[in-house]
């Protein structure tokens, strides 16, 4: 059960809570002990170990030890849980070029600030994630999988006619990851926009991304330093990836929806685009989702655009393509986090990119 976190209301309470949380974090960090054991390669300058010993003594190591290189020595990190916190033991290699090789990083004697930041990162990230490769959203493979597992839960309630804010609050109570709402997003959500789509049964990740995009907002999975993995609702950020509205199809559309490629006689006249798609939806066989944010920016109103299709025996896919082109739109078949397909209708470009394939493996 994870209530939504917002920094707008109850400012005094939240500031106090934040301060207490910071105090706990600082206490736990202070309790962690980091020891370093430096193995020196043969042939090293005689004064280099002394210089490095003095340099390492300026850092917050609980113990510094220098010794000769043993066969099989490599940079490594060992972590042990103790009643007072973590105990880390780093084995580093001091090579003939007087470089200090640590797990995942190499330092020279002029890199004291980088080395201090390295130790700080170790304490904040903990042994499980420290040094792990970062991929999509800046997360490790394990963090990505945890995020996917949470967002793959289905929406268990009806959403049509509900406000976006109320839906977000209900979903937050079922997700295993907490949701943090940025102040500017809180203001937008408080306007009480109602949902047109019925999203019950669709995966929570795609549903949240769809609802928030219509409001000009995004869902960002993130792991702040010293804090647990979380989901943040905010305005789009140019340097941050957001959770997308669905993912690339794992197979060819023809295999998933063969009905799109069966020839039938079609004729459409006197219908708006929205009405025509609604009439065709039983044959399409999957939910149809409009990119409401982009349509609003381009002033495209499917209910008001009249479309036609001259009588012809052809594929349903061709009919849909023709109808959407009359509104300057296109479609892409996507899947949610559970593999459920849906039609995504938009204008493809920088503001609405094509879907990507999801993988918890690093890119």
Secondary structure topology:
Layout: E1 4-6, H1 11-31, E2 33-40, H2 48-57, E3 63-68, E4 76-82, E5 85-94, E6 100-102, E7 105-107, H3 112-129, H4 141-151, H5 164-172, E8 179-181, H6 183-189, H7 204-214, E9 218-222, E10 230-234, E11 247-248, H8 253-256, E12 263-272, H9 273-284, E13 288-290, H10 292-297, E14 306-315, H11 316-325, E15 330-335, E16 341-346
Parallel strand pairs: 1-8, 2-3, 2-5, 8-10, 13-16
Antiparallel strand pairs: 4-5, 5-6, 6-7, 9-10, 11-15, 12-14, 15-16
What features would you describe in this structure?
With 363 residues, the chain is α/β, with parallel strands linked by helices. It folds into three domains: 30-129; 135-243, Phage tail protein beta-alpha-beta fold; 253-346, Phage tail protein beta-alpha-beta fold (3-Layer(bab) Sandwich), CATH 3.55.50. Helix content is 33%, strand content 25%. It is built from eleven helices and 16 strands. The protein has helices spanning 11-31, 48-57, 112-129, 141-151, 164-172, 183-189, 204-214, 253-256, 273-284, 292-297, 316-325, and strands at 4-6, 33-40, 63-68, 76-82, 85-94, 100-102, 105-107, 179-181, 218-222, 230-234, 247-248, 263-272, 288-290, 306-315, 330-335, 341-346. Strands 2, 3, 4, 5, 6 and 7 form a six-stranded mixed beta sheet that branches. A hairpin with a 2-residue loop joins strand 4 and strand 5. Helix 9 packs antiparallel against helix 11. It starts with a strand and ends in a 17-residue tail after the last strand.
């Amino acid at each position: 059960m994870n209530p939504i976190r917002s920094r707008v209301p109850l400012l005094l309470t939240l500031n106090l809570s934040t301060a207490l949380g910071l105090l706990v974090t600082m206490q736990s960090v202070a309790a962690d002990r980091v020891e370093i054991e430096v193995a020196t390669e043969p042939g090293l300058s005689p004064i280099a170990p002394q210089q490095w010993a003095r340099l390492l003594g300026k850092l917050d190591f609980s113990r510094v030890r220098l010794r000769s290189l043993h066969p099989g020595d490599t940079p490594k990190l060992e972590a042990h849980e103790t009643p007072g916190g973590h105990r880390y033991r780093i084995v580093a290699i001091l090579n003939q070029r007087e470089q200090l090789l640590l797990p995942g990083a190499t330092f020279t004697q002029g890199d004291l600030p980088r080395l201090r930041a390295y130790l700080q990162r170790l304490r904040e990230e903990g042994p499980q994630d420290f040094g792990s490769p970062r991929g999509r959203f800046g997360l490790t493979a394990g963090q990505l999988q945890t995020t996917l597992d949470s967002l793959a839960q289905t929406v268990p309630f009806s959403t049509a006619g509900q406000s976006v804010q109320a839906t977000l609050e209900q979903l937050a109570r079922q997700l295993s990851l907490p949701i943090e709402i940025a102040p500017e997003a809180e203001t937008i959500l408080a306007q009480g926009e109602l949902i047109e789509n019925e999203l019950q049964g669709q995966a929570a990740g795609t549903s949240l991304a769809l609802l928030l995009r219509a409001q000009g907002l995004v869902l960002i999975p993130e792991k702040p330093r010293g804090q647990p993995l979380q989901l943040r609702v905010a305005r789009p950020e140019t340097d941050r990836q957001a959770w997308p509205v669905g993912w690339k199809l794992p197979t060819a559309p023809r295999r998933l929806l063969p009905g799109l490629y069966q020839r039938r006689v079609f004729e459409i006249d006197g219908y708006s685009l929205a009405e025509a798609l609604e009439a065709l939806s039983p044959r399409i066989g999957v939910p149809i989702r409009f990119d409401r944010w982009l349509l609003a920016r381009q002033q495209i109103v499917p209910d008001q655009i009249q479309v036609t299709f001259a009588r012809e025996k052809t594929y349903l896919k061709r009919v849909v393509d023709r109808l959407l082109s009359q509104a300057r739109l296109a479609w892409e078949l996507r899947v949610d986090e559970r593999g459920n397909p849906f039609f995504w209708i938009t204008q493809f470009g920088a503001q609405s990119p094509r879907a990507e394939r999801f993988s918890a493996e690093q890119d």
